[in-house]
Amino acid sequence: MSSVSTEPPARKNKLSLRVRLRRDRSLLLMTVPAVALLLVFNYVPLFGLLTAFQDYNPLVGVWNSEWVGFDQFVTLFGDSLFWGSLTNTLYLSFVQLILFFPIPIALALLLNSVLSERLRNFIQSIAYLPHFFSWVLAITIFQQMFGGAGLLNQFLRSNDMSTWDIMTNPDTFVLLITSQAIWKEAGWSIIVFLAALAAINTDLYESSAVDGAGRWRRLWHITLPGMSGVIMLMLVLRLGNALTVGFEQFLIQREAVGHEAADVLDTFAFYYGIATNNYSYGAAAGLFKSVISLLLIWGANKLAHAFGEDGLYRK
Amino acid sequence: MTETLTIERTKEKRDVTGRKPVRHRKRAKRPVWEEPPTAAGQTAKGLTLGVVVAVVLVPLWIIVVTSLSTQAAVNRAGGLVIWPTDVTFEAYRVMLGDSTVRNALLVSLGITAVGTAVSMVVSILCAYGLSRSGSVAHRFILVLLILTMFVSGGLIPTFLVVTELGGYGQWWALILPGAVSVFNILVLRAFYSDTSTDLIEAARIDGAGDWRILWSIVLPTSRAVTAVIALFYGVGYWNSFFNVMLYMPTDSEKWPLQYVLLTYVNRGNGLPGSVNSGFGSQFSQTAPLSLQMAVVVLTIVPLLLVYPFMQKHFRTGVLTGAVKG
Questions:
Q1: Among 3.30.565.10, 3.30.70.20, 3.40.50.300, 1.10.3720.10, what is the CATH number of B92-315?
Q2: N or C, which terminus of chain B has less Cβ within 10 Å?
Q3: Residues forming a β-bridge with A55
Q4: CB contact, 8 Å: A158 with chain B?
Q5: Tens of pLDDT along B58-70?
Q6: B293 contacts on A by Cβ (under 8 Å)
Q7: ipTM of this complex
């Protein structure tokens, strides 16, 4: 509160750097905490990636550990566990793309057609809710519904039918993961599509209806073209993030279904790096994922440009 | 790359006090040119939306009802109870009497409160610091921020940095490494950039500096976005459990509620430390289902308490323009 400045309002760039620095010193000062935190916890770890080329020893630190060149990567590419994780990741990504991706679009269309604003808001609030649940909570809820002692099996048992435990079955784990993801995030994903729908000029609907276009024709010729930008963008984002399928979800359920089904690239670095004190190995796996992901994001961005979109942006 | 994200301000116009103009609820009406819906279409739509609501609400209902049931009711149902018969708060009494759960609740509330406060102060300052066009170095800092969204050291290098700074077993290790969300800063910044320049320039002529402008003009006019961003941060802290696993896995005194939920309900293990409490036997062995469900409810309640207030702010359109349409 103390530094009340009396500078003139005009902020022209013609002023000398010293004057501008003096003028904007409060603004610069305000960014310091955030920049400092990002430097320490985001930029310094980038240098920590050097450990991927070392045999890191926690006792002597990064500076004194032995340099081993690409040895960690050679081991990594010969590791069947690593290939297993990579295959699982790609497979899960593909299944989620097919099963998850269309749902929010369909829901948004459906919700948009609800006339009552009050009802629409109510459904939206309910649908968004699971997004704010932790994965521990979401999985616990799934376990209570579908687990060995859950509601479903409780019902099957009381009707003398054979029980069916999807929570511990590695063969159906892909579907379990996908349905959990849909339950937790599909509602929240509606938001962007609803925004796209709200941006469509309603006059278009009216004039085409007057010209005799039916409900489906309007959907095909007005609604979908109006949404295509966002749909394409979301699709491209999903492709760019193909190697990211989630972390905590797998961490929590790995014990129940076993590592063959539940290991993905993100958890690989944890289980075969940190948990076994094999830091350099985990860092190598992490670096591999980061590099490929960057390439995918770059490629997806190119794709977006090719389709005439502005490019992308994603947390 | 920097300007690909445009976040539109809310469509509703707000005056300087941040109040929304009074709107009268209009009766929903079908436009005259639209053909009347078919019965089959209406039914299918109703059913689908009903299912969407039910898959969220029904499990929550069952969990709450079970947490309020007696052991006899649970036995009778053979597990989860769908309809309340004899309601009792016994499970909650036992749960809150347990020192590990009580402790975890305090830890979770503490981390959430302190973490959200830290994150909000840092983010608001940074967002405003970058929101005045033409200020020194703001583009450079912006690029510095946005780059972190695309390149990161990843799990292990971050872990090594935190441990080398002495963060293992420390509270700050649960807060500081993830305290800054660049995405949230960008959302705040987009709103601050849109604050009426006339108002700001008038204040500047009156001798107000940037701190004063932020506090007296910018913050009061962007209450809705501040609330929503605080909710995002708060939920993040409340839900976090992996960093506990990473930085203080053995220290059950410092476990938050999510970790108790994982250990005790999800994994069905007893809780360390509960053995010595008066209710130890119940928590250290496979516990009554009602007690487990009470723990689940406990992790949801804080969210449900703030959610209705935030709900109206979602609608003011923070996310409406999060992706350029």
A1: 1.10.3720.10
A2: N
A3: A66
A4: yes
A5: 999 999 999 998 8
A6: 144
A7: 0.85
